[in-house]
Automatic annotation (TrEMBL):
Superkingdom field: Bacteria
Family annotation (InterPro entries): Integrase_cat-core, RNaseH-like_sf, RNaseH_sf
Protein name as annotated: Transposase
Pfam families the record matches: rve_3
Signal peptide interval: none
PANTHER family: INTEGRASE CORE DOMAIN PROTEIN, LOW CALCIUM RESPONSE LOCUS PROTEIN T
Length: 95
């Protein structure tokens, strides 16, 4: 890990937590979303500028988080699931 990343994490009070070697299932969500992003965006377009990458990525993220139902979330979007979880935490009095 780079020293710069460790310093940034410390300055921003971020705890870095790494998966154990050989335990890729601990990282399954990230691996799935990375694969989806790669196949639907990076492999699909021939980008001409960095701004084009940013714009297309932003559109993809909006769709992925707000419009696309996820089977693992009982066909809710990530946004719907987040709102439901926040409501549940509020009802339980959790912070």
């Amino acid at each position: 890990m780079s020293l710069a990343r460790a310093q940034w994490a410390e300055e921003h009070r971020v705890i870095l937590d790494f998966i154990k070697p050989g335990k890729s299932t601990q990282n399954a969500f990230i691996k799935s979303s990375n694969r989806t992003y790669r196949t639907e965006t990076l492999d699909f377009y021939l980008f001409r500028t960095l701004n084009e990458v940013r714009e297309i990525t932003e559109r993809w993220l909006t769709e992925y988080n707000s419009e696309r139902p996820h089977e693992s979330l009982n066909n809710l979007t990530l946004e719907e699931y987040r709102l439901m979880a926040e409501k549940w935490k509020f009802q339980k009095g959790w912070k």
